[in-house]
Amino acid sequence: MLESIVFSVLNGLLYGMLLFMLASGLTLIFGMMGVLNFAHASFYMLGAYCAYTISSYTNFWVALIVAPLFVGFLGALTERFGLRNVHKHGHVAELLLTFGLVYVIDELVVLIWGQIPVDYAIPPSLDFTLFTLFGTSFPAYRGFILCVAILMFVAIYGLLVRTRVGMIIRAALSHPEMVGALGHDVPRIFTLVFAFGTGLAGLAGVMAGNYYITEPGMAFSMGPIVFVVVVFGGLGSLGGALAASLIIGLVTTFAVSLNYSIADLLAGIGLTLGNESIVGGLAHIDLSRIGQMLPYLMMVLILIFRPRGLMGARES
Amino acid sequence: MSDALRLAGVHKRFGETPIIRGVDLAVAPGERHAIIGPNGAGKSTLFNLISGRYTPSEGEIALHGKRISGLAPHQINRRGLSRSFQITNLFQNMTVFENLRCSLLWAHGYKYSFWHLVGRQAALNEAAEQWLERLGLTARRDVLASLLTYAEQRTLEIGTTIAGGADVILLDEPTAGMGLAERDHTMAMISEVTRDKTLLMVEHDMGVVFELADRISVLVYGQIIASDTPEAIRANAAVQEAYLGEAH
Amino acid sequence: MSQSQTARGALLWHIGIWALFALVIAVLPYIFTSSSSISMMSQMGVFIIFALSYNMLLGEAGMLSFGHAVYFGLGGFFTLHAIRAVNDGVWSFPLELMPLVGGAGGLAFGIIFGSISTRRAGVTFAMITLGIGSMVESSANMFTDFFGGESGISGNRVTDVTLFGFSYGPSVEVYYLIGAWTVIAAVAMYLLTKTPLGRISNAVRDNPERAQFVGYNTTIARFIQFSLSGFFAGIAGGLFAIMFEIMTAPNVGLVQSGAVLLMTFIGGVGVFFGPIIGAVLVTYMHTALSGFSEGWILYFGLLFVFMVMYAPGGIAGVLCVHAAPWRAGHLWRLLPGYLLALVPALLAIAGLVAVVEMGYQLSLAYDPSSPIDLFYMEVNATSLLSWLVALLVLAVGIAGVLGAARVVRARWAEVNRSMQASGAKT
Amino acid sequence: MVNANMLEVKDLHAYYGKSHVLQGVDFNVGRGEIVSLLGRNGVGRSTTCKAIMGLVAPHGTIHFDGESVAGLKSHQVARRGIGYVPEDRLIFSGLTTKENLEMGVKKVGAQARWTLDDAYRLFPRLAERADVKANLLSGGEQQMLTMCRTLMGDPKLIMIDEPTEGLAPQIVSQVGDFLLKIAEQGISVLLVEQRLSIAMRVSHRVHVMGHGRIVFEGTPADLEADDAVRREWLEV
Amino acid sequence: ADDTIKIGYIDPLSGPFANVGDAGLKHFKYLAERINADGGILGKDVEIIGYDNKSSAQESLQILREAADEGVHYVTQGNGSHVGGALVDGVEKHNRRNPDNRMVFLNYAAVDPALTGEKCSFWHFRFDANSAMKLQAITDYVAEQEDIKKVFLINMDYSHGQAISRIAKEMLKEKRPDIEIVGDVLHPVGKVKDFSPYVSQIQSSGADTVISGNWGNDLSLLVKAGSQAGLDTDWYTYYAGGLGTPTALGKAGAGHVKMVTEWQENLVEDYDAPELREILEEFEQRYDGIEFYYLRIKTEMDMLQKAMEEAGSTEPLAVAQALEGMTMETPFGTVTMREQDHQLLQPLFISTFSEDYPKYDSEGTGIGWVMDAKLEAADTAVDSVCEMKRPSS
Ligand SMILES: Nc1ncnc2c1ncn2[C@@H]1O[C@H](COP(=O)(O)OP(=O)(O)OP(=O)(O)O)[C@@H](O)[C@H]1O
Ligand SMILES: Nc1ncnc2c1ncn2[C@@H]1O[C@H](COP(=O)(O)OP(=O)(O)OP(=O)(O)O)[C@@H](O)[C@H]1O
Ligand SMILES: [Mg+2]
Ligand SMILES: [Mg+2]
């Protein structure tokens, strides 16, 4: 039991940190620019594919630096030639633009890299066992992921939340033209923020692409859950995103490893339920099968009872 | 009991900060009452309390003797109290006519009906047309509210406030930002359309205040320091010092 | 007197338009007779209803929903279960009215989920709908009796219980059933915009705060509108179920919800008939384009991005911009500019298509070096020359479009000026 | 060559879509001078400011401190040293009062003539409300905030559009004093006003606008004397 | 009037499963080309028309109509039993409503036993062993492995996985009552990114063998997570050889992963099959990176050809009647299209993914499949509940 709890915590933390890598960029963009970047997970996928291509010519460490930069550059182009033009039509238009981009990016990835998963592997220098616990080995690459995620948190926190850039962008959300009239180059700042946010997604892709699998469906499978994290944590709140990532990481992991149903719990206190009635049938469903629904349920509940999310400063 | 509007011991705090600090006020039916006071004294906040946008931290507000504090804005509105906004607040993507018609719907008893066609409700449309005329906006009937000039928007703002048929009207700085000519025009319009109604308004323009109001209350730092006829207020030394300054 | 005359004129005009709409629906199967086009047109009808019901939220009440397929899909499931019940002899209900079962299901769940989600507005509302949509989709795995697991629920629409004696086996009969419902539902939704509820929904969309101060509870207004929209989505779902005789979990899912958002937006949210255009166009692209090219998703995505950037009012929005010059009789003055733009635009599209198709040929094809048929030419994707030519065509096209755009803009300025001048006179 | 005028506007035109709002505006503002733009509602005074600021596309010549600023982006104009206080205030609603003021600062750390403390001293009310979200401020407080926000950017010329709107009479006269004080520091002021009284009190020169053009130019005393202009263009 | 025999290929050609659909299409096209090069069937060329069903059952029904319009009388599909089920149903209804324009559905990979069980249809023929049969093969083999003591079942949470979990328990209990089932987990389809929690469960259960019907990423991620955690169990799978999976598995799978299939390339080393060797080499050369994976597609095409030639016509009813009960020789033995339920009985093989492979590695990974055991066609048979309704004319 202890063993499985320890591992669930470790696994949950790791999954949570990976979620956070994606969520941090989305939080920045979402929270600061008000843009719901539906294509965020697509940039994440681009990061993984670019890292694959770059590392096949050079090595993983070069890819770790270059791929996020390149993805950030693509993000900058997206902002400069896409989002900026639709900004005047409001957030819905921006959101729809990124929504359309999902189709375009995902198809381009297929066009360039094909439909078969690519062989993007963990670098040999990180492919060893860090330590062994209860007979299960803990790979070094996981430790590396944890480190990078923590570094990312610190860096973003120092770089943005505590400087004026954040303030200027929040101001620009209400009256961009006035921010310009006060002497700030709003468009450039927007471009930089979007580039930075997508660059972070790219970095997450570099880190996760080899840990998981680099294939054209990876964006689609990651997209919705990242949204849940960002909303759950509270728009624009980096701390919230971190907390939400960890909570959702842990919850989904525990739901899997604690393979019980409500009926089992009731049986534990001496109640038995047949599974003929609807209630009984519901109660017999394993927690692990509900697991995939839990994050969404959590999101809906938090939005109903606390619309600004876990730590959000304002109502979305 | 017969007061159109009555505030008793109303307090409002935002977090720790008290903004309204014990306001008692009675407005008789048919009275035109003005509230003046320095910036940030809490005039708009008082309006927000009365109209239900905020709930008082303490105290009670009654409309025609019935308690309204704690009700939602739409419930208060249905009991016959309507307000305008300091910063114009219209249905920007609807035409002038539609704006007015929308403000008439509830009063005409349509509620959320989805079985009446608004275009076929003669009484409703007629009433809306009449309001257009009274406001002098007939020529602009089918223009989107967002395309009106500032003065026209203010006029429509007041029109939408009054059209619903409420008998207690709250106007927040109705002439702010208007030129002299528009101001006179608006004043005339206001006094015309609120003839049999109870009017409570906030204004910084002393000309307007002294011309229109029967009584004036002076709100300073969340408290009413004087409430009297215009002449008496003008003469009041405390008011002179707290609000009017040397200019007047 | 004159007012009632214009009112009658307007009424006749409206009846005329809808009669024409019905007539077109009735005549189409005589023009497009193949069974695949009948089935495509049937789908169009279904999606017209679905998109219009979506626009009741997005366009009319300003509610951006990412989970509208829930009501569509559940409506379909209910209908199919009802049809199965009729086939099993448990129940008797005419097939023609089966969509009402779907409507009732959509309405019921619209009421349930609406009472939760419409308490909030804006992005919060959107996220709640996203959450509910995902939850319902994943719950399909748990309630396999109702959703039928991954193979879904299927049934046989030929039930013996009908009003008009058709069997509804042949797809043409189903087409006319769908067509009739399309007209009924579209007219109903059109009239709905003209009711107090419709107006208040607009008001709530524009300025919820003010709506409260004219006596309306914005939550209730949104809630009623949401529930009714669920009703129509359910009708669409019911027809969908009758048409395909199968419902699967993805029908309640996010992809389907996204699709209706795309349709509605591409058609145009600002005008009532916008979603109709969107539904027809997107359904056509979805079925036809995916047959022509592997890259249909890419084309579709590009079209959508293009629309968002340059025609945020959708196709209907583009049409409406031309209404004023048309009425003023100036439309012809814009034509030369458009014609001028047409040629390079076609060139640019051709170039783009060539590039994309050759790309797919290279990366996915059965045999990359086999020639592909492009614009009645045989093109070899492995030759550098064809890439150069395609890119050149694309570049020339884009440059031409940019140039022509300047002309078009100048023409527009001219037309605006003369419209203003004549407007000032009257 | 040092130009005597801080701001020179020649034959300035501007359009909103189809409507030709500014139809050739000419005027200038000297160093340390307070110049008022008067006129009825809708004659285009605010549009003049916006055109100078680059918020509306200007057609014509605008020279600031000897350099042309026509056609620049508004942040570039602002960096050259023009400050703008818009009539609709444009408070940043997500930020606190203090953050709004900080938004005005263009370069952090540079030796500024105007500091937070100056702003608080001028309007103590702002100090009291420093950590409140600015959209919750009262109308008058917001007006004070916008003026100070612009000053934080150390402008050489400040354009103020209807600063006294919604202010209590007592504060109005404070604003007048405030304008005189900043002019003393060598900052030029372009004041767009509705209220004749304050404009006449503080201005060195006044311009009256009508139909998108300047129709009168002179000292306040000249305007005082010219009944015809006042009646025709100002309706007093 | 038709001078070609059109076969409609209905599978995903876009979206997440496009890679698999595309590979299948290439198999068909290639094999059709070979037939045409030999003079076609009854003098007619075979034409394969690819239709993209976007993995959707509804979409597939729509396509069915389209295909009927275009004179297609034979459709084939494989990816997803839910689509297969819809097509069985759709073809059945179509043939009832359009008796003069009938269609036959040739299923090359949808393995839900129900398709030849309670849902069986005269117009449907399955050329892949269904999942119960594959499980029969696995459990037969497992039963012979003395050192297997503890088995863990992990499957995708939908009918395919659920069926495996159910049937595996029954079969193991019967064949090796001493084997303990130490875990039986169903996980969401395609949603799990990190299988570590599941691996922890396997690890703590002390299992020595895992049986899984997972496919695609759900299999690769599972095995990878296991190898990273140092899990030392054998994996008995259905689809480890599926397109892209060997690449994704990489070294993580070597030595541990087994699969049950009707074919893998190295079988040509064990058996004398010159024609197959030629096919696999030509195919691989032609489609760089894609391997000849579906022997059953060749079986399908060969049997279709034989049936048409026997019937002397390409008319669907006659061909379907000829297919019923047909037998055919292959290099691995005789295959039979069982008359009762239209399920093909064919030999199955258990193979291991190993760095020590005879000749052909998989997807250039340097790891290939090695045969462990062969199960004769007759031994794979599992009883069917099918009560076939045959058309009267
Ligand atoms: N929701 C709120 N939270 C915190 N403080 C608030 C809130 N609403 C108003 N205030 C504060 O209450 C005070 C009174 O504001 P109010 O808008 O009532 O003033 P006012 O008398 O209308 O002034 P003005 O004449 O300038 O419009 C202001 O200092 C304002 O900052
Ligand atoms: N965004 C806009 N779109 C269209 N027309 C506009 C716009 N802004 C202003 N106008 C029109 O341009 C004219 C000049 O406006 P401007 O705001 O410059 O006037 P003003 O002199 O500042 O008057 P006010 O006293 O209202 O502030 C007015 O007729 C106004 O209706
Ligand atoms: Mg106020
Ligand atoms: Mg102005």
UniProtKB/TrEMBL annotation, chain A:
InterPro entries to which the protein is assigned, alphabetical: ABC_transp_permease (IPR001851), BCAA_transport_permease (IPR052157)
GO BP: any one term: amino acid transport
Membrane topology (UniProt): Multi-pass membrane protein
Cellular component, GO annotation: plasma membrane
GO molecular function (one): transmembrane transporter activity
This protein's UniProt keywords: Amino-acid transport, Cell membrane, Membrane, Transmembrane, Transmembrane helix, Transport
Localization (cell): Cell inner membrane
Transmembrane segments: 12-30, 60-83, 95-116, 140-160, 189-213, 225-258, 265-283, 289-305
UniProt cross-references to Pfam families, sorted A to Z: BPD_transp_2
Coiled coil residues, start to end: none
Family, as annotated: Belongs to the binding-protein-dependent transport system permease family. LivHM subfamily.
Protein name (database record): Branched amino acid transport system membrane protein
Source organism of this protein record: Salinisphaera shabanensis E1L3A
From TrEMBL, chain B:
InterPro entries: AAA+_ATPase, ABC_AA/LPS_Transport, ABC_transporter-like_ATP-bd, BCA_ABC_TP_C, P-loop_NTPase
Span of domain ABC transporter: 5-246
Source organism, top-level taxon: Bacteria
PROSITE patterns for the chain: ABC_TRANSPORTER_2 (PS50893)
Cellular component per GO, a single term: plasma membrane
Gene3D superfamilies: P-loop containing nucleotide triphosphate hydrolases
Keyword vocabulary terms for this entry: ATP-binding, Nucleotide-binding, Transport
GO molecular function: ATP binding; ATP hydrolysis activity
Pfam families, alphabetized: ABC_tran, BCA_ABC_TP_C
PANTHER family: CONSERVED COMPONENT OF ABC TRANSPORTER FOR NATURAL AMINO ACIDS (PTHR45772:SF9), CONSERVED COMPONENT OF ABC TRANSPORTER FOR NATURAL AMINO ACIDS-RELATED (PTHR45772)
Name listed for the protein in its UniProt record: Branched amino acid related transport system bifunctional protein Membrane
UniProtKB/TrEMBL annotation, chain C:
Entry keyword Cell membrane: yes
Membrane topology: Multi-pass membrane protein
TM spans (from-to): 12-32, 38-57, 98-117, 174-192, 223-247, 259-284, 296-323, 335-356, 384-408
Main location: membrane
GO cellular component: plasma membrane
Cellular localization per UniProt: Cell inner membrane
Keywords for this protein: Cell membrane, Membrane, Transmembrane, Transmembrane helix
Coiled coil regions, renumbered to chain: none
Protein name listed in UniProt: Branched amino acid related transport system bifunctional protein Membrane
UniProtKB/TrEMBL annotation, chain D:
ABC transporter domain segment(s): 7-236
Family (UniProt): Belongs to the ABC transporter superfamily.
Sorted UniProt keywords: Amino-acid transport, ATP-binding, Nucleotide-binding, Transport
Key word ATP-binding present: yes
One function term, GO molecular function aspect: branched-chain amino acid transmembrane transporter activity
GO biological process: L-amino acid transport
Keyword flag DNA-binding: no
Protein name (record): ABC transporter component protein
Top-level division of the source organism's lineage: Bacteria
Pfam families the record matches: ABC_tran
Signal peptide (UniProt feature, chain positions): none
Stored CDD domains: ABC_TM1139_LivF_branched
